[in-house]
Write a structure and sequence with these properties.
- The structure is a single chain.
- The protein is an alpha/beta fold and 385 residues long.
- The chain contains 16 helices and 13 strands.
- Strand 4, helix 5 and strand 5 form a beta-alpha-beta unit.
């Protein structure tokens, strides 16, 4: 039996890297039995994903297949059906190798929190062939539901929810084959790497920001103004050094652009640095986050690293996943800030709460984290059944 990962994408999103590596650890399988479709094999090889998953290059169509795709798209008048044709050829060669008894694992975590996408096509196609499929380590809420998603949810052999709010939602809409376990990235361990020099001079607050939470590649947004107010508060009222930590480097949502924009604005204070993540994998970034006294993050898997390392953290949530994970860890709602429905001053209030309760939060995380992480391995028993 082999496990296939058609929606791995690539480690340009370190969360994709984390899920792939964590999943392989949870499965306990050999690298040859984990097959992942990858858009950037050289990058994932450099990040070490190839030690966990056998990587196959995406967009590997033959000349004849490219011609067939062009003709089929041209002859299809319905724009929605044209999308299905494109997806068909995205996966046509990858799916040919999947046999009865193999399992498709649909990764991505929050893929079902966005519009109708390739999760639906890949699941429905393999379900029709009688292949077992799993929606893996996922989050989803009622605001994300569409008729197409509801149909495909019933076609999954198993749904592995990573937090209880999504689990409750799945059960509420009548899904039976659902389990609740921590996100697979929690089981990963940090890897030692060189630390930025700022760690030798003062306490550090690590901050991960994205265009998703800001609402643009700009500070001229409602949440961007809250971020600036928070930075000004930190600079005026604390001695913390601010380390900006990018976590996604895909061109259309590159955290490095946001980090550089902020660094350019505040560099004169000499209390801002940007972590160079180009040659750091997920577990090395986790190591850096683990050295921070505090952390604030917009990317879920960056926040998961902070939680895993028992660093008091604020999640800048914009979907059900942030609230659900924090809830299951027994953390105060004050440590989750909704970046899409921000109230003026809410971010500074959360920051002062975190600073004022740092010891209690860290002690709580240290107490619960070993047991919480170990729960993820229960997926092995579930898969056997």
């Amino acid at each position: 039996m082999k496990y296939y990962f058609p929606i791995h994408l690539d480690g340009g999103n370190r969360g994709c890297e984390a899920i792939a590596k964590g999943t392989a650890m949870l499965l306990g399988t050999d690298v040859k039995d984990n097959i992942g479709l990858c858009r950037d094999v050289p990058l994932d090889t450099r990040l070490g994903v190839n030690k966990f998953v056998t990587l196959q290059e995406a967009n590997n169509l033959s000349f004849l297949q490219k011609v067939e795709r062009s003709l089929e798209v041209h002859l299809t008048k319905d724009i929605r059906k044209q999308g299905n044709v494109m997806q068909k050829y995205d996966y046509i060669n990858f799916f040919k190798q999947i046999k009865e008894g193999d399992v498709m694992i649909s990764t991505g975590g929050d893929m079902m929190c966005y519009g109708n996408n390739q999760v639906i096509y890949t699941n429905n196609t393999l379900h029709e062939r009688g292949i077992k499929t799993i929606l893996w380590g996922c989050s989803m809420g009622p605001e994300n539901l569409t008729p197409e998603k509801e149909e495909t949810l019933h076609n999954f052999s198993l749904i592995y929810a990573r937090e209880s709010l999504s689990f409750d939602f799945f059960r509420k809409i009548g899904l039976k084959n659902v389990c609740l376990l921590p996100d697979p990235a929690f089981v990963l361990k940090p890897e030692e790497c060189a630390l930025p020099t700022c760690f030798g001079t003062s306490d550090v607050i690590g901050i991960n920001l994205s265009n998703y939470v800001l609402g643009d590649f700009s500070l001229d947004t409602p949440f961007g103004k809250e971020i600036q107010d928070m930075f000004n508060y930190i600079l005026k009222n604390t001695n913390l050094h601010i380390l900006l930590i990018p976590h996604v480097t895909w061109s259309e949502q590159d955290d490095r652009k946001v980090a550089q924009m902020l660094y350019n604005k505040y560099k004169e204070t000499e209390r801002f640095s940007v972590l160079d993540v180009d040659h750091l994998n997920y577990c090395q970034i986790r190591n850096v986050i683990g050295e921070c006294k505090f952390f604030i993050g917009g990317r879920t898997h960056a926040v998961i690293s902070a939680y895993s390392m028992c660093v008091p953290s604020i999640a800048l949530g914009y979907s059900i996943k942030s609230k659900g994970i924090a809830k299951d860890l027994g953390l105060s709602e004050k440590l989750v800030v909704d970046s899409k429905k921000i109230q003026k001053g809410a971010l500074i209030q959360s920051l002062t709460y975190m600073i004022g309760n740092v010891d209690e939060i860290r002690t709580h995380l240290n107490k619960i984290m070993p047991t919480y992480k170990s729960q993820a391995f229960e997926i092995r028993k579930i898969l056997k059944n």
